[in-house]
Design brief:
Radius of gyration: 27 Å
Order of helices and strands: HHHHHHHHHHHHHHHHHHHHHHHHHHH
Number of domains: 3
Number of strands: 0
Length: 603
């Protein structure tokens, strides 16, 4: 019973604390990864899903995560666009990741001859705290954050199987090692950060100085890397817009601040929000600006002190306790890629702690249990258990409250901005939501605030132009669109909005302007769709049919395009071809033609 008790606690705690997330909707990137991704609409498109990076119908990304897309494909086949199912699967993935971590932690401590009772207590404490910690809500309560759980689920399972192979012989050794390699491959295909587990598999026997096992692990890792590269490199990928690199001399400063920020989030996760930042953003010489800058400098000093303390602890345990030493080493290894020393799409993010926090909490739990067991004072142990219990309760309650932040798009954006995540990106998203709902003055206010933070932010300029068009402020709209067409990220959409603006001013439809928009930059189905509809409205149905067929020559997997082709062919009295196109649409969207209604999204 003692052996299965931790698993039972996890099975109750994870669904219990994350259950409120099941009532949430689709927010932020969910609209791109689920509502607009044509590659999740049919099981027939699973192989094609491995041939594309994420965000097929949105801003280009560097995210090659076909296992994440595969999970959405299975859910879409089951329930279409009902978010409760997606949230439920995310909770289950986090639970399985916690179970895999528990198995790995037990096996890791066994490899360093930690007695059964101690390793059971240590692994249980660490994993239960990790499983309910609110910093992971971004990976659990937010559907698009599932990549972390998927990578952890397969990653921890992979290193557990790798450790099992170290005490196996004969055929069982190679079965365990092969299963470990497969799990680690799936981890990397779930999220790029899953590649960290490859290093973990090699580091563990290396620290043990078991060179024979290290060689086997290295061979398995090399095989995984070869397969991963053979899948990733040929995949269709639109390069992301170039970012201004963070100067090398600034990176150590951000590195130090991130350590202080993350330490606070682990031990007292009260202030939680998306789009965190540890950069200094001066806004004049006001007291508020100078106070914010001073706080960042104090955070830099705190980070240096914490880093020095961590390094001292690491070196101290190198000879005293190699199990703690290894857990700290794995913490550093998994943290380094997200530490701020390397350019990423942000300086800090809560969900980036998903892997490092697991190793750190394991080291902390092992050190704490050994510290109190080495002392005979019962009151110290009782006090420590009381503090741990109160802290755990606080973490669980904070998790329950935090899951509500993803209730819907407005709640998510407004709470993020209110709690400190008032980045230009968040303000643009909120401005876009206000624009969509017709609150033009509010939209303008948020977009202008975004431009104050980033004066040349392309999406802010474009959306402000859209607001001006809706307000019939044509002069401002022309000026803003003249800026927007000089920005590669929004150039195509700027041409499209110019066509809308011209129609508002003159009542005429500029077909050539829409054609220019459809031919600018990488393929954009939302623009192409409007161009095709305009062709048809202006009497060019045959031209519209030819245009749709041109799109299908490269994007044959898009059910919505086949559906549009069917409608155009039907209008042109080409019934047999229309039926064939409609059948193709149903092949690529399992919900088309279903009694429950089509799930094809035009959002």
């Amino acid at each position: 019973m003692k052996r299965i008790l931790p698993f039972l606690i996890l099975a109750a705690a994870v669904p219990g604390f994350y259950a409120p997330a099941a009532r949430n909707g689709f927010v932020w990137d969910d609209t791109a990864l689920i509502l607009r991704d044509p590659l999740i609409r049919s099981w027939r498109l699973i192989p094609e899903g491995f041939q594309h990076f994420l965000f097929t119908d949105a801003t280009a990304s560097d995210f090659y995560r076909p296992i994440q897309r595969l999970s959405y494909t299975l859910e879409y086949a089951a329930v279409g666009f009902q978010p409760a199912m997606y949230h439920g699967v995310s909770i289950v993935c986090h639970l399985v990741a916690a179970i895999a971590l528990l198995l790995f932690a037990n096996e890791l401590l066994r490899a360093f001859d930690v007695d059964e009772r101690l390793r059971r207590n240590v692994s249980s404490i660490a994993v239960i705290v990790w499983a309910i910690h609110p910093i992971h809500t971004g990976a659990v309560a937010y559907i698009s954050g599932r990549a972390d759980s998927l990578a952890a689920m397969f990653g921890f399972a992979g290193v557990y199987l790798g450790l099992r192979s170290m005490r196996a012989a004969g055929g069982r050794l190679w079965i365990f090692l092969g299963a470990a390699a497969l799990s680690l491959l799936l981890s990397a295909l779930g999220k790029e950060a899953g590649l960290i587990f490859l290093a973990v598999l090699v580091v563990i026997p290396f620290v043990q100085r078991n060179w024979k096992i290290s060689l086997r692990a290295a061979i398995a890792v090399l095989a995984v890397l070869v397969v991963y590269a053979s899948l990733r490199l040929p995949a269709e990928h639109t390069p992301t817009p170039s970012r201004q690199p963070i100067p090398l001399l600034v990176r150590p400063i951000l590195f130090s601040r991130a350590i202080a920020e993350y330490t606070g989030l682990i031990f007292f996760p009260l202030d939680l929000h998306m789009d965190r930042d540890v950069a200094t953003h001066p806004f004049g010489f006001s007291n508020a600006s100078m106070g914010a800058a001073a706080w960042r400098e104090l955070q830099t000093l705190a980070g240096i002190v914490l880093l020095a303390g961590f390094v001292y602890w690491l070196l101290r345990e190198r000879k005293r306790d190699r199990a703690i030493f290894l857990c700290l080493l794995l913490t550093a290894l998994s943290y380094l890629p997200v530490s701020g020393m390397f350019p990423l799409n942000a300086t800090i993010a809560e969900h980036w702690l998903y892997f490092p926090s697991a190793f750190f909490l394991l080291a902390l739990a092992l050190a704490a249990v050994r510290f109190f067991e080495a002392r005979s004072e019962r009151y110290l142990s009782s006090l420590a258990l009381s503090v741990l219990a109160l802290w755990t309760i606080f973490l669980g309650v904070r998790t329950v409250v935090r899951t509500d932040d993803w209730k819907d798009q407005r709640t998510f954006l407004e709470r993020t901005i209110t709690n400190g995540g008032d980045s230009a990106r968040m303000l643009i998203n909120l401005g876009g939501l206000e624009l969509k709902e017709g609150r033009l003055d509010e939209a303008k206010r948020h977009l202008e605030a975004a431009l104050q933070k980033e004066p040349e932010q392309p999406l802010a300029v474009l959306n402000l132009a859209a607001v001006a068009v809706e307000q019939s402020d044509f002069k401002v709209a022309h000026d803003l669109l003249a800026r927007a067409v000089q920005m590669p990220l929004v150039k195509a959409r700027a041409y499209e909005l110019m066509a809308v603006l011209e129609n508002r001013e003159t009542g005429q439809s500029n077909l050539m302007r829409m054609r220019l928009a459809s031919r600018t930059g990488p393929p954009n189905w939302s623009i192409e769709k409007r161009y095709v509809k305009l062709l048809d409205e202006l009497g060019g149905t045959e031209a519209a049919i030819a245009e749709v067929k041109h799109c299908l020559a490269t994007q044959w997997y898009r059910a919505e395009t086949w559906q549009m082709l069917s409608e155009l062919l039907e209008k042109a009295s080409r019934g047999r071809e229309a039926a064939e196109a409609s059948a193709q649409a149903r092949r690529y969207d399992v919900w088309l033609g279903d009694d429950k209604g089509s799930a094809v999204s035009t959002r």
